[in-house]
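S.,

Sequence below, as promised.
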Amino acid sequence: MITADLLKISDNQGSSCGDSSRISSGVSTDVSSGACSAENEGSVTSYSMSPGGQRYFIPTCGDLNCIPVKDMVFESLHKAYKFYKNREGFNDVNDDSCSNVVKRRRTVSQRCECKAKIVVKYTSLDRFFVLSFVEKHNHPLASETGRQFLRANREMSLGLRTLVFGAAKVNIGNNKSFSFSKELMDGYSNVGATLRDFRNLDRDLKCYVGERDGQMMIEKFKVMQETSASFYYAYDVDPAGHLMKLFWADAIGRRNFEIYGDAVSFDATFETNKFASCLLSHESVTDYSWAFGHFVKAMGRNPVLIITDQCAAIKVVVPGIFSSINGLVASKHRLCMWHILQKFPVKLGNRLCKETDFMEKMKIYIWSSNIDIDEFERGWEAVIKEFKLEGNKWLADMYEIRSSWIPAFFRDEPMFGLMRTTSRSESENSFFAQFHKQGDTLCEFWLRYQSAMDKQRNETARLDHETNSSIPTCILTWFIEDDAADLFTRAIFYKF
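The prediction came back faster than expected:
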């Protein structure tokens, strides 16, 4: 559809009459003094001279039907406008002597008080007829190459607007959209608009949304809930009516949680994950309690395990919200190992962590999920003693909370030993960063978020297809291998 609309742009730019396409090199005649002509870069500047020295330019056209005449009838005012375009009027000049005048940026003027015009009058038959027509211009006419820059010949057609709007969903800016349009139309002159028009469209869309982006989001969610009862959303506003919290989960996300949501990674960097999304104005106990509360309400149960960073507010909220209240099974809270290990050089010094084998020896006991708790504790104590770190308070604190981040304490919980960090969330953040940028309105965020989710789900569909339509190479003759090939995805099968 976009391509078809773009191909119509040249037809939507108005009649060719009045521009350089109807100008010939012949000299216009007039009752005034002798006529002159000159050409500059393809622009024919044929003119006649009045007794007062004023030059007048009259376009010439081989087709007389392109020249307006009195009593000519048009079906609409728009068609009459497209038939004739000019530069009537003049620009106001700032008077610097007035102290209350705001200085404007320096620009060029395209208005020169040209008297050329066409006057149409409305009739009772829903028609417009030409009342009068002045053909003389007091300025040179546009060249063939300059036609594309005339404001009257520039228009952001429906096809261009659709292209720009669609490109914005995947974070493609105006410059690239304009260049892409040029390639589609085989030249800048065929686009029908300039780069400035592309940027103005983006500006106008932001102005249209203005401060209503929050309300527009809520109205959108209301419609989505009316069309799909499985769509869940909640929001909260401050006393002034400003949107402060927003949570939503669609039918696919809620179904995914029911199937795959035993272990959930939560990272507040982007406030998004694969099951649901939430936008918060603050990272406080109150805000997180609100968000997690609606998460449980939308999903109908607690995750078996939730893994987070060491955010103080989250550490308070998780035990209270993901508890056994209302008969639900309480979630187990685990801290991200990666965030903790990143603090080792900061808390213990770069020299110890990077110039000795301290970290290599410590990671043997930290990362392994194949050792039991007693073996971990003996190994931790031995490394601490070897490097004389018995008095380090931070290490002592990390040891006190070892049951919340060391894999050895999760080895009896199925699959929990594999879920050690919030790297999945961080990977999601990196993915979403390709679609979003600073300065996005809520409406822009929503559109780009939807594009990102569509891409993810399409990739999931592709991988499902590969799994369902192919058979992995087996190396054994055991039936258990065939069962595993049928049960697992291809990536998990080969990893297993």
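The longest helix spans residues 442-468.

Coffee later?
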